Amino acid sequence: MKILMLVSSMHAGGAERVSATLVNAWSARGDQVTLVPTYSARGICFYPVSDAVELVWLADLAGVRHAGPWSSAARLFALRRLIQERRPDVVVSFLTNVNVAALLATRGLDVPVIVCERTNPAAGNNAGALLDRARRLTYPWADIVTVQADATVEPFRAMVPGVRRLEVVPNPLPPELAGAPVAARQEDPPGVRKRLMAMGRLVPEKQFDMLIDVFADLAHAHPDWDLCIWGEGPEREALQARIGMRGMGARIELPGRTDTPWQALAQGQAFVLTSAVEGFPNVLMEAMALGLPCVAFDCPSGPREMTREGKDAMLIPPSDRADLARALDCIMDDRALRLELGERAARAVRDRYALPTVLARWDELFAEVMRA
């Protein structure tokens, strides 16, 4: 089978990580896979991509290295030529702007196209007015539109009417996580500090400012715990200033972005997700797969499904500071609860989001669009 995968870039990010996982898996089983980052400038692959995958930078084909309407048009025509040359059995596209370009580039080519929304646009639409109109115009041309969570289906259907078919396809667990043993988390020896972990881009939507304040309020009651927030972004200076203002410089750390996120998470004893909105929080799924006990806001969308409505983690009302404080106080105080939640979380997500399970779901969609 010939699969052409489009994604904006291959920088660090959830869509990029999932793209790399899928193209590597498809090529490993013998599919002919072409991965096309459509970003205006040539970039790098943050996540490993198999040598069996053909990697084509659209900027190279278009001969442009900058943004703007003319370069966008050049990339669009270059993408159409590439699809005509490769004649794929199916085109898979990630992210709204890339999805719109894929649908414009394949118009009239009789090539099945599956476009994938990677956020919940009904809960947090940051596409902008022009891109939102383009999505409403072009998405009805797609053979299938996918979202990542059941909670996104109806809001998205109302927001983008006319979509022919809307399906749910969750992200897969990276095979390295799905196959790794979950070690029982023993109590740390005396003198070894415990870590509450968080991870994500340092932007307002992640609500790390609230997390810093809540942890600072609880720090005196839990003197053997520290907070570590992995990630990078425009809010770094403001968050660092907040840490200093609360006198938490020795207890709260912002170590930046890591190339080994799973190893970083595995150094913690608990994980917290404080996002106001998510599409499908990979970091929560990965923390659960590692056997970390988790606290998560019941934000739209993803955490409710991922935790089976709070059976496998502590699920609390969205953006509720008081409940966040109560949940963190409880999980930092109760070792037995941490062990129970961690073991339950690992079993749950490894069963439901294993790569073979998600690949089987993709194969169902491929078979259906090719038959149609």
Task: Give the helix/strand layout.
Layout: E1 2-7, H1 14-28, E2 32-37, E3 54-55, H2 58-62, H3 69-86, E4 90-94, H4 96-105, E5 113-116, H5 129-138, E6 144-147, H6 150-159, E7 166-168, H7 175-178, E8 194-199, H8 208-218, E9 225-230, H9 236-245, E10 252-256, H10 261-265, E11 270-273, H11 282-289, E12 294-297, H12 303-306, E13 314-316, H13 321-333, H14 335-352, H15 355-371
Parallel strand pairs: 1-2, 1-4, 2-3, 4-5, 5-6, 6-7, 8-9, 8-11, 9-10, 11-12, 12-13
Helix pairs in contact: 3-4, 4-5, 8-13, 11-14
The biggest sheet amounts to: 7 strands, parallel
Work out the radius of gyration: 21 Å
Model regions low in confidence, pLDDT < 50 over at least 5 residues: none
Instruction: Average the pLDDT over all residues and give the rounded result.
Output: 91
> Which range does the strand content fall in?
15-25%
Describe the fold and architecture.
The chain has 372 residues and is an alpha/beta fold. It contains 15 helices and 13 strands. Strands 3-2-1-4-5-6-7 form a seven-stranded parallel β-sheet, sandwiched between helices. The chain has a six-stranded parallel β-sheet with strand order 10-9-8-11-12-13, with helices on both faces. β12, α12 (303-306) and β13 form a beta-alpha-beta unit.
Précis, in short:
This protein has 15 helices and 13 strands.
Structural features:
alpha/beta; globular; 7-stranded parallel sheet; 6-stranded parallel sheet; 372 residues
